[in-house]
Amino acid sequence: MPKDQKFIRNFAIIAHIDHGKSTLADRIMETTNTVSNREASDQLLDDLAVEQMHGVTVKSRTVRNYYVDPEGQEFEYNLIDTPGHVDFNYEVSRSLSATDGVLLLVDATKGVQAQTVANYRLSQDAGLTVIPIINKIDNKMADVDSTQAGLMDLDERFTPENTLRISAKTGIGIDDVLLAIRDRLPAPSGEPEAPLKGLIFDTKFDPYQGVMVQARIFDGILTKNMALNFMANDVSAQPKEIGFYTPLATETPELSAGDVGYILTGIKDPRAIQVGDTVTSKQNPTDAPFPGYQQIEPMVYAGIYPHEGEYKELKIAIEKLALNDAAFQYEPEQSEALGMGFRGGFLGIFHLQIIRERLQAEFGLDVLTTMPNSTYRVTVKNQDKPLYIENPTQFPDYNMITKVEEPYVRAKITAPDSQLNDIMRLAEGRRGVLQDLETIGDMLLITYKMPISEIAYDFFNELKSVSHGFATLSTERDDYDESDLVRLDIQIDYTPVDALTFVMHRLRVDQFAQEIVQKLTELVPRKLQQMPVQAIVEGRVISRGNIPPLRKAAASSGKTSKKQQQMRRQGQKNQIELPQSVFDAILDMSRH
């Protein structure tokens, strides 16, 4: 039997980082008796250790709450959590598409900030109803009036009468929030009699039960005995179990139009179903899938290598991580300098950092990661089809290349208008081309076309630095465009080090080469003899330095013949040690 949808509300909470999103979610679950005091803990929806450490959500979660209003009527409140970092922008858009409205939370001590504006725009693009909420009103530093003025700059409908004022930490105003969800957010309006149509907004893999998906049912009724089809890859499945989270998994015989729940598909291929897919009935399918589905593709690539003797442990750990993170892709790779490892594909630098920290926290593995890079499209002589290069070591020799192209993104930066000059200087220093400039209150939405390689390393952190933490960034893929890129090779003791091969713009390579040679002379472990470090571009040495010996070579002051040097290098070819500090230093190097 389909439910009466007028008693269902599907919503998300969106906020700038540290404005109290997780705390408000906790209070809603406690006030509706979704979790008992015994189960209660801070950041209930953030169960990954790295999520609680960074204060951002990486995996989307949802929980069903039962709210009994003052008249005694019970409502089903489905709270859908959303990822909270720029690398997960697509997942945020899909999670919001599964809702009918959002709570826009603003910290009264900090006011409207860039992520507030960015999240508001995402909810507007999705056509959602927005309830503005000012949080932390009991804090001594709170400036409620100024925060209210900032909200009205964002949207003139956010008047003092329409804005809720709460303290999620102490529970002040939570009852008003629950009533506002009932009264101001629209109920679902799907057709229970129509063919099944549900939106997948999260996936997870279990080695025993296969792919588990979270879905919002828009039309029709889903039952356990129904043969399903996932439309993006035309994958069929018979559900092993369906249910919803409270936040514990709770089995149910059916999910009907308006519901949010999970499906245990039994599918053993973790990449068969991805976020944004549409689920329907195999016997009576819907006419068309939901728009906006994208195949999740990595933005940057980096090598991941174990410490000595830990390759098997790393292989097992990476396989397990990849099962529950469809955006993380990998393949085996061997480096002469670093040995056996993997080439990983990531959504961005923060995603790479999350994978590194999960390997350490969940598997006890400290890994070495190389400099990230993007994919390059290279046209070579006497070959019709271009080459797609993900690893700089595969970059062709310069005398074979006719054209090099690199991928670009449209980078949308939201920031206070007072910081425009600093942000333009930063973006244009990264080869950004200004495409649009829009004013929203005292905030600006600045759109640049930029190479992925220029934002892959530290652009987000630099943006935070020049804007004092006030700016936010979202990116969407553009196309490939021609660039004057060259390959930079590093030799240590006249031996090429494949892990230190880079592709970068010609205008930047001289300064980068000078800096990296200097860093290597300081950080590469010393040996008994002096070791030269050379940076080579297109057959030319453009920078050179020396790694000093462990001790002065007084005892062996005689000159060494070229033959002896060659024999020494052959014997030590695989003995050059590259600690993680080398790669960390490269990442930290100034790119101005």
Automatic annotation (TrEMBL):
<dbReference type="GO" id="GO:0043022">
    <property type="term" value="F:ribosome binding"/>
</dbReference>
<dbReference type="GO" id="GO:0003924">
    <property type="term" value="F:GTPase activity"/>
</dbReference>
<dbReference type="Pfam" id="PF00009">
    <property type="entry name" value="GTP_EFTU"/>
</dbReference>
<feature type="region of interest" description="Disordered">
    <location>
        <begin position="548"/>
        <end position="574"/>
    </location>
</feature>
<dbReference type="GO" id="GO:0005886">
    <property type="term" value="C:plasma membrane"/>
</dbReference>
<protein>
    <recommendedName>
        <fullName>Elongation factor 4</fullName>
        <ecNumber>3.6.5.n1</ecNumber>
    </recommendedName>
</protein>
<feature type="binding site">
    <location>
        <begin position="18"/>
        <end position="23"/>
    </location>
    <ligand>
        <name>GTP</name>
    </ligand>
</feature>
<dbReference type="InterPro" id="IPR005225">
    <property type="entry name" value="Small_GTP-bd"/>
</dbReference>
<dbReference type="InterPro" id="IPR013842">
    <property type="entry name" value="LepA_CTD"/>
</dbReference>
<dbReference type="InterPro" id="IPR035654">
    <property type="entry name" value="LepA_IV"/>
</dbReference>
<dbReference type="InterPro" id="IPR009000">
    <property type="entry name" value="Transl_B-barrel_sf"/>
</dbReference>
<dbReference type="InterPro" id="IPR035647">
    <property type="entry name" value="EFG_III/V"/>
</dbReference>
<dbReference type="InterPro" id="IPR000795">
    <property type="entry name" value="T_Tr_GTP-bd_dom"/>
</dbReference>
<keyword id="KW-0648">Protein biosynthesis</keyword>
<dbReference type="InterPro" id="IPR000640">
    <property type="entry name" value="EFG_V-like"/>
</dbReference>
<comment type="similarity">
    <text>Belongs to the TRAFAC class translation factor GTPase superfamily. Classic translation factor GTPase family. LepA subfamily.</text>
</comment>
<dbReference type="GO" id="GO:0003746">
    <property type="term" value="F:translation elongation factor activity"/>
</dbReference>
<dbReference type="GO" id="GO:0045727">
    <property type="term" value="P:positive regulation of translation"/>
</dbReference>
<keyword id="KW-0547">Nucleotide-binding</keyword>
<dbReference type="Pfam" id="PF06421">
    <property type="entry name" value="LepA_C"/>
</dbReference>
<comment type="function">
    <text>Required for accurate and efficient protein synthesis under certain stress conditions. May act as a fidelity factor of the translation reaction, by catalyzing a one-codon backward translocation of tRNAs on improperly translocated ribosomes. Back-translocation proceeds from a post-translocation (POST) complex to a pre-translocation (PRE) complex, thus giving elongation factor G a second chance to translocate the tRNAs correctly. Binds to ribosomes in a GTP-dependent manner.</text>
</comment>
<keyword id="KW-1003">Cell membrane</keyword>
<dbReference type="InterPro" id="IPR006297">
    <property type="entry name" value="EF-4"/>
</dbReference>
<keyword id="KW-0472">Membrane</keyword>
<dbReference type="GO" id="GO:0005525">
    <property type="term" value="F:GTP binding"/>
</dbReference>
<dbReference type="Pfam" id="PF00679">
    <property type="entry name" value="EFG_C"/>
</dbReference>
<keyword id="KW-0378">Hydrolase</keyword>
<keyword id="KW-0342">GTP-binding</keyword>
<feature type="binding site">
    <location>
        <begin position="135"/>
        <end position="138"/>
    </location>
    <ligand>
        <name>GTP</name>
    </ligand>
</feature>
<dbReference type="InterPro" id="IPR038363">
    <property type="entry name" value="LepA_C_sf"/>
</dbReference>
<dbReference type="InterPro" id="IPR027417">
    <property type="entry name" value="P-loop_NTPase"/>
</dbReference>
